[in-house]
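Lecture notes, continued. The same structure-token format from the folding unit now serves as the input rather than the output. Read the line below as a description of shape only.
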């Protein structure tokens, strides 16, 4: 990749979660599961669930408003809005266009990216090139999911894992050293069927039959995904660090995708990082797919774990398969 011409900094961060909390105990009333199984196999204790009248665009807009406030700018200054999501309000138009309208971001052009749990880092990487090249001055990057709306609430293998949330960052060149130092993205389309929602697209358009066959829900071969996730997250994390000329031990904080505590723990071990240097909040939110990293980043910042000069790496893995990492000097 050509070296970026300008520095690109994260100048604002925000997030939003629905108020409704669904605990493991609540799930015991819905499917044949237990708090003990969910806690030991995943680390998740509770997750947030959007109410029926709250679409992804509402959560995305609120996270964006908070990120803009944090950056000290308003919507009219945004040149580009990229939303990573697989649970947008509608197949089209994009959720990004809905957010653009609600923020009054008149001059921005807006579009969605579909990369499952890697959606946010894919969007961040693309946004970085836009700012670095001078094609855009100010870019809003959002990860948002309302996975509760595509979860099969009769399938204990998946329904205990996911939650709803959004997170956003604002990118700009500041002329200062640091900022986003490297990004690395990967895909493997041979493995699509291990994690998918089969119905609703051009392969299986919505019909009574697709509803009867429960094709409009998430399906996951959890164990296979688990094994790939650990290997891929370690390897892409090392690749992004190497591209920035850094070693894992130089990191102040790892902000991994929050899918499973055991995946996070295994990734940290392989990188030789103690858990004190790893940010974890999946106990309270579950797996929020593309929202998980910006939500974690926002909490880490508010907890004072991202100080000026801190070296932080974000790393993720998701359906597609897709996986990605980004290294940032805060
Ligand atoms: O967001 C990116 C993509 N997603 C991920 O990264 C998720 C990756 N996968 C995982 O996190 C884990 O594989 C899971 C948490 C999904 C599953 O954990 P596991 O240790 O891989 O369990 P398993 O799928 O091998 O299932 C073990 C047993 C099975 O019972 P049998 O066949 O051994 O009798 C399941 O039926 O656990 C059973 N099981 C449950 N039991 C109670 C599966 N789900 C549940 C449940 N409650 N909710």
């Amino acid at each position: 990749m050509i070296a970026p011409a300008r520095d690109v900094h994260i100048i604002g961060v925000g997030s939003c979660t629905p108020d409704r909390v669904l605990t493991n105990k609540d799930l015991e009333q819905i499917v044949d599961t237990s708090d003990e199984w969910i806690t030991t196999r995943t680390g998740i204790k509770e997750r947030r669930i959007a109410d029926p009248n709250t679409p992804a665009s509402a959560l995305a807009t609120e996270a964006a408003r908070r990120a803009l406030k944090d950056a000290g700018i308003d919507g009219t200054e945004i040149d580009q809005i990229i939303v990573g999501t697989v649970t947008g309000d509608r197949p089209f138009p994009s959720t990004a266009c809905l957010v653009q309208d609600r923020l009054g971001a008149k001059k921005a052009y807006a579009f969605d990216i579909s990369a499952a749990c890697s959606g946010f880092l894919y969007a961040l990487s693309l946004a970085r090139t836009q700012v670095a090249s001078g094609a855009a001055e100010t870019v809003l990057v959002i990860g948002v999911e309302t996975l509760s709306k595509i979860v099969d609430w009769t399938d204990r293998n998946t329904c205990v894992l996911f939650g709803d949330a959004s997170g956003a960052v604002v990118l700009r060149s500041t002329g200062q050293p640091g900022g986003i130092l490297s990004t690395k993205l990967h895909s493997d389309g041979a493995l699509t069927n291990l994690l998918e929602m089969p119905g609703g697209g051009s392969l299986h358009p919505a019909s009574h039959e697709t509803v009867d066959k429960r094709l409009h829900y998430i399906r996951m071969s959890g164990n296979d995904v688990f094994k790939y996730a650990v290997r891929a997250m370690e390897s892409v994390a090392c690749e992004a660090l190497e591209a920035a000329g850094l070693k894992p031990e130089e990191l102040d904080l790892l902000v991994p995708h929050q899918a499973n505590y055991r995946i996070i723990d295994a990734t940290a071990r392989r990188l030789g990082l103690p858990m004190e240097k790893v940010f974890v909040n999946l106990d309270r939110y579950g797996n929020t797919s593309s929202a998980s990293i910006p939500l974690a980043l926002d909490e880490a910042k508010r907890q004072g774990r991202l100080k000026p000069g801190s070296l932080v790496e974000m790393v993720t893995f998701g359906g597609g398969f897709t996986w990605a990492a980004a290294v940032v000097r805060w």
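Point for the exam: The pocket of oxa(dethia)-CoA is lined by residues 33, 37-38, 41-42, 117, 156-157, 160, 195, 222-223, 225-226, 229, 259-260, 263, 287, 317-318 (CB under 6 Å).
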